Amino acid sequence: MSTTRKHTALPKAQILIEALPWLTRHHGKTVVIKFGGNAMIDEELKAAFAQDVVFLRHAGLRPVVVHGGGPQISAQLDKQGLVSEFKAGLRVTTPEAMDVVRMVLAGQVQRELVGLLNQHGPFAVGMTGEDAHTITATKHRPRIEGELVDIGRVGEITRIDTGAIEALLDNGRIPVVSSIARSEDDGHVYNVNADTAAAALAAALGAETLMVLTDVEGLYEDWPHSDEVISRLTAGELEKLLPELSSGMVPKMEGCLHAVRNGVTTARVIDGRVQHSILLEIFTDEGIGTMVVPDAQGES
Ligand SMILES: Nc1ncnc2c1ncn2[C@@H]1O[C@H](COP(=O)(O)OP(=O)(O)O)[C@@H](O)[C@H]1O
Ligand SMILES: CC(=O)N[C@@H](CCC(=O)OP(=O)(O)O)C(=O)O
């Protein structure tokens, strides 16, 4: 006869134990989480996001948050009567618009995320890519229909210095990074797409995972005609698909490709509208969204 006694709260212990293999696997690993402006509109979701990130920190992972704020920037530009225009998926950024981008990202969105995270303890430290030379960029001139175009103060990342972020992580903090770069060419700053910044940081930090939270379920196979999500694809498969992608998915998937081609083990695009999507992704089998993995050896 068994002498095992079962406490009524045993199911709770079972849930915790189910997470043990994932806790073991991810312990000490760096996870870069990109929180998009579109996933940032709901108060409950923002609070759940902050809980998840702090949970990761307590579980022994090293989370780094990179945030966007496209809709928030557009709203402020509108308020100030400045035009908001995108070319090749990037905001045309005049010097006046750059002031607004910097004010909204570093002064508003980043402050709000830092505040939410710090409701759980003294963890979050906000910074922009300007700080300690974290992100350096030069002027980006995208090609549209074969022609190089000038879209103002939009930066192309040339260098990443991970020193400040590593120091914060080693100190048990959670860096919260706004996607603004210092300039390689002059004393000014550049506006960088937040997906691109997150991917570049993930690669430079040798992160295990890049997780991009957005406002759709993942990468749709035949957007906008169907909502069939591609659940897993290799770098080579993604590379072939890139020319067919449009709008906001372009920098996200280019970023995922860059990350897995530069040492990141998995890059995932997940639905930021699902509460606790980060925990579901890291600690359970019920991962959601699209996962990009490096090519198997010998494959390209
Ligand atoms: N193949 C695709 N699958 C999913 N979404 C796509 C696809 N192609 C374009 N999109 C668009 O990309 C958007 C996400 O990008 P974006 O608006 O930049 O979000 P975020 O603010 O999260 O960075 C989706 O809401 C959708 O409208
Ligand atoms: C050059 C460029 O387009 N920069 C973006 C930076 C913010 C961002 O990327 O925000 P989301 O992640 O919410 O889209 C912009 O100005 O909107």
TrEMBL record:
Pfam families linked: AA_kinase
Site-annotated residues for Transition state stabilizer: K34, K252
Localisation: Cytoplasm
Residues annotated as signal peptide: none
A GO CC annotation given for this chain: cytoplasm
Species whose genome carries this gene: Streptomyces lavendofoliae
Domain Aspartate/glutamate/uridylate kinase: 29-271
Known pathway: Amino-acid biosynthesis; L-arginine biosynthesis; N(2)-acetyl-L-ornithine from L-glutamate: step 2/4
Biological process per Gene Ontology, one example term: L-arginine biosynthetic process via ornithine
Catalysis: reaction(s): N-acetyl-L-glutamate + ATP = N-acetyl-L-glutamyl 5-phosphate + ADP
Gene label: argB
Keyword Zinc-finger in annotation: no
Binding site for substrate: G69, G70, R91, N191
Keywords: Amino-acid biosynthesis, Arginine biosynthesis, ATP-binding, Cytoplasm, Kinase, Nucleotide-binding, Transferase
The protein's name: Acetylglutamate kinase
Keyword Ubl conjugation recorded: no
Chief localisation class: cytoplasm
Family indicated by similarity: Belongs to the acetylglutamate kinase family. ArgB subfamily.
A GO term, aspect molecular function: acetylglutamate kinase activity
